[in-house]
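Ops channel
N.P.: pipeline sanity check, posting one input/output pair.
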């Protein structure tokens, strides 16, 4: 099966296409990434601006064309908390569907945590043992832990870098020490309360960070460049990160964008991301995080691959579950139901 996963995040729309074959890993075919910049285009009331909605529509339109051109059997289009939690979510969804015929679906934060944990387990394997995963997005922080493919605990809290920047920091830098201190206290209080859900779990053997935020902070503090490839060992050291927090606060977004690892698109929320990462590592007693190159999209691919291994698709026909080819939306009965095939079907998954 050739599967496309379209992830609409706070900064970009990212399509990943891979071939799924039982007994093997997802084999990448191609990918497409387009900026949507939702985090910076959402006001303090949670309303996404019209220009940003147009960027989402354009990105989804292009992604659908690329998926069609590459013979994708099914595409899974979903949005994370940037759209899921938007005050004008119905408007965003309606405009995307009216323009493209594709209905975006959503996961709960806990489902995002579960699938990202599955991706990290797929990358590091069983040798990682008991594993604790952290993932900082634009709207939320996901945590998951366990010793199996599925986490024993999966949690999500509204501590995303974009959300915290909007609600707790001034719109322009530099940021005062008092504002940074207040944000850190708030983040620590939320994580400390959340950590109660992890208290009964065994001590982790491996600590993993998975997200662009963690990857950029690791590079900022000395990890290898992206061009070193996905197999280069990258870690985020808590003490080094703590030393960078006041330096980020003292800089404007434009100045942060000139630092190693910090992209212009994420520079405005780099300080909030660093505060969340440092506070989480401190509260949870983590000295170093291993940075995993696989994340939510790969988790979705691995989840579908497990379904394919359990329930093989007998025939890649021109009709899917009674839906003729050319229909734009295929509704599935369960969150992890078996996928069919067609050119091009999109899967509307009732995660929420």
């Amino acid at each position: 099966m050739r599967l496309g996963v379209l992830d609409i995040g706070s900064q970009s729309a990212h399509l990943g296409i891979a071939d799924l074959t039982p007994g093997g890993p997802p084999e990448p075919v191609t990918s497409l990434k387009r900026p949507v910049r939702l985090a910076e285009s959402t006001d303090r009331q949670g309303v996404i601006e019209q220009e940003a909605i147009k960027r989402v529509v354009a990105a989804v339109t292009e992604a659908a064309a690329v998926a069609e051109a590459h013979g994708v059997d099914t595409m899974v289009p979903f949005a994370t908390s940037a759209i899921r939690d938007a005050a004008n979510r119905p408007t965003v969804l309606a405009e995307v569907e009216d323009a493209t015929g594709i209905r975006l679906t959503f996961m709960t934060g806990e489902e995002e945590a579960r699938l990202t944990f599955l991706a990290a387990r797929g990358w590091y394997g069983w040798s990682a043992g008991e594993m604790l995963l952290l993932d900082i997005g634009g709207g939320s922080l996901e945590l998951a832990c366990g010793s199996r493919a599925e986490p024993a605990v999966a949690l999500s809290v509204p501590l995303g870098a974009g959300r915290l920047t909007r609600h707790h920091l001034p719109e322009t830098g530099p940021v005062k020490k008092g504002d940074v201190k207040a944000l850190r206290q708030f983040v620590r209080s939320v994580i400390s309360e959340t950590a109660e859900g992890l208290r009964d779990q065994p001590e982790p053997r491996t600590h993993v960070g998975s997200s662009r935020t963690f990857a950029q902070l690791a590079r900022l503090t000395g990890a290898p460049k992206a061009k070193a490839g996905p197999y280069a060992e990258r870690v985020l050291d808590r003490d080094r990160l703590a030393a960078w927090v006041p330096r980020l606060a003292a800089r404007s977004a434009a100045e942060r964008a000139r630092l190693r690892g910090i992209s212009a698109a994420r520079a405005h929320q780099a300080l909030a991301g660093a505060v969340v990462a440092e506070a989480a590592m401190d509260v949870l007693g983590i000295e170093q995080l291993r940075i995993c190159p696989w994340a939510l999209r790969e988790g979705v691919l691995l989840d579908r691959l497990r379904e394919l291994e359990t329930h093989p698709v007998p025939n890649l026909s021109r009709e899917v579950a009674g839906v003729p080819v050319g229909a734009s939306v295929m509704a599935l009965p369960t969150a992890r139901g078996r996928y069919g095939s067609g050119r091009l079907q999109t899967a509307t998954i009732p995660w929420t």
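N.P.: looks fine end to end. DSSP finds eleven helices and 15 strands in the chain.
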